[in-house]
Amino acid sequence: MTPVRPRHAASLILLRQQAGGTRVLMGRRPAKSRFAPDVFVFPGGRVDPADYDRPVARALAEDCVRRTGADSRLAAALASAALRETEEETGLLLPRDHAPLTLAARAITPTNSPVRFHARFFAADADLASGEAGDTSELANLAWRTFDESLTLPLFDITEAILRTLRAEGSPFLMTYRAGSTLVKDLP
């Protein structure tokens, strides 16, 4: 069986500094989802063709573009997809500003998966968003959780690796993750 070619996807890890520590926004995917049913995830999804043409107030930093492993056009589409999907899945309003985003991780779904993604995980301060996050048809049980709370939920291995590393590092980082292997931290 020939592996399915991974599609480009992006997520946004929104981090909120509060008394008692950092909180991260996560929600549970619907039980009937074809991909990732009933697991908790960061808001995100696949890149749509329109993401390539979305106007941007300020571009991603060159270092962030390089770390995506993509050319500048695809990197911008990935950032736009992360912002768009976060709005759709949470109701939060986000500016079309890529400059505050950092790349925290990239991961490719294993070859034996019937649905595959080459995902990039951007991180940003929650102050970038306006409005109140609320459940949608795409994400339920949406809440700002501590890293410790988040790690008790049903998670993908990549999500768990990102949460554990964020908790240890205290700020966004860059890592490449390969399922079933040790976390590989990228050099700056």
Tell me what the structure shows.
- This protein is α+β, with helices and mostly antiparallel strands.
- The chain has a single domain, classed as Nucleoside Triphosphate Pyrophosphohydrolase.
- Strands 1, 2, 3, 4, 5, 6, 7, 8 and 9 form a nine-stranded mixed sheet that branches.
- About 3% of the residues have low confidence.
**Helical element count?**
4
- Percent of residues in helices comes to 10-25%
What do we call the CATH topology?
A: Nucleoside Triphosphate Pyrophosphohydrolase
CATH architectural label: Alpha-Beta Complex
How would you spell out the order of helices and strands? EEEEHHEEEHHEE
What is the CA-CA span between the terminal residues? 37 Å
Q: How many domains, in number, for the residues?
A: 1
| CATH hierarchy class name | Alpha Beta
Average of per-residue pLDDT values: 89
